[in-house]
Design a protein that fits this description.
The chain is mainly beta and 355 residues long. The chain contains three helices and 25 strands.
């Protein structure tokens, strides 16, 4: 027969009456707790839904910046209409949230409006500079033309050399679309880009956008020649790679070459090793991933190394500056050209690289 469990009623002991002093203390602590929770609720309340359109109102709002390219949508849905894509570092006012989406307001005159953006594309920020709220200057001249940066330049939210107007850096060799020329705050000529930002006019050169050729003969016969399959690389802009079978040109390909301080090496080389799908990490060549010029790139296809320190031919999916400088010494190719070259070349294929 199982032993009987003691009854809680029988085991309970009579508690002594609570002291009046303890009751007062408990009530006081309870009041403090309620007031504290109320204060916390106020502190965590949703941001004001009123869009901020002037710098003197900015301190009372909640702000974020885009951490990378950020598409603005009409609804919290990837299938909804996309208004435009903001550059990294663009300021946005947070008006609220809808699941994993942030409801935001773009405060810049000329493009003010509300939209939805994936909240994981945003990072917290202090109120933006007063330059963000300044009305853009009138156009001095219509341009509407593609241009290439001939030097590293700072992209700004207003045509001013002030650090408070800076949005981010644009690398030499990058292509931009210029919509108009304006007179800047400093009295100099500036260019407005098609997304409403600004660049100093002396940083931009207007020239035809290069088109990657499929098969073409080189402009001049190479000074160096090999038997069988080999590659002749000309670094004079527009930089290009010509695949040869003996003295016969098989295919000409525009390439992205290295930029200072890491230009593409010149001389005679051979393909040393090949990796079909590479991960490229700038820390392996002494550049911290998160530092200036750092990178960590996955799925770099059709990589064919021709130096022991990492210079290679490969598919370049993160840039379109074909024919010009823009790499850390590698020769970047389009998908079609890099895929073709992967099938055509092999370990031991010679390269002659020159200007």
């Amino acid at each position: 027969m199982a032993p009987m469990r003691p009854s809680l009623r029988h085991c309970a002991r009579r508690r002594p009456a609570a002291s009046p002093v303890l009751l007062v203390v408990a009530l006081g602590l309870g009041l403090v707790l309620v007031l504290g929770l109320a204060g916390l609720a106020v502190a965590q309340s949703s941001p004001s839904p009123d869009p901020v359109t002037s710098a003197d109102q900015a301190a009372g709002a909640t702000w974020a910046v885009t951490l990378g390219p950020a598409p603005l949508h009409s609804q919290p849905d990837d299938a909804s209409d996309q208004f435009r894509e903001l550059r990294p570092g663009s300021p946005l006012q947070i008006l609220g949230y809808a699941d994993t989406w942030a409801y935001v307001f773009d405060p810049r005159p000329g493009q003010q409006g509300t939209a939805y953006v994936h909240s994981d594309l945003l990072g917290p920020s202090d109120p933006p500079s007063a330059y963000v709220f300044k009305a853009p200057p009138d156009d001095a001249e219509a341009v509407d033309q593609a241009g290439r940066l001939v030097t590293d330049a700072t992209l700004t939210v207003y045509p001013s050399p002030s650090a408070d107007a800076a949005l981010g850096d644009v690398d030499e060799g990058s292509w931009v679309t210029i919509s108009a020329a304006v007179d800047g705050e400093d009295g100099a000529r500036w260019y407005r880009t098609d997304d409403g930002n600004y660049l100093p006019s002396d940083a931009v050169s207007f020239e035809p956008v290069p088109q990657a050729p499929a098969v073409a003969a080189p402009a001049a016969a190479p000074s160096q020649s090999y038997q069988g399959r080999w590659l002749d690389v000309t670094l004079t802009e527009p930089a290009h790679v010509v695949a040869y079978q003996g003295n016969t040109a098989v295919r000409t390909m525009l390439t992205i070459k290295g930029r200072i301080p890491r230009p593409t090496p010149t001389g005679q080389f051979t393909i040393l090793r090949r990796v079909a799908n590479e991960t490229m990490d700038s820390s392996t060549i002494g550049i911290p991933r998160n530092g200036p010029g750092g990178y960590y790139l996955k799925n770099v296809l059709f990589t064919q190394y021709f130096t022991g320190d990492g210079a290679s031919l490969h598919y370049n999916y993160w840039s379109s500056n074909f024919g010009y400088a823009g790499s850390h010494g590698c020769l970047g190719l389009s998908y079609a050209d890099s895929a073709w070259l992967w099938e055509w070349a092999t370990v031991g294929t010679p390269l002659s690289i020159h200007y």
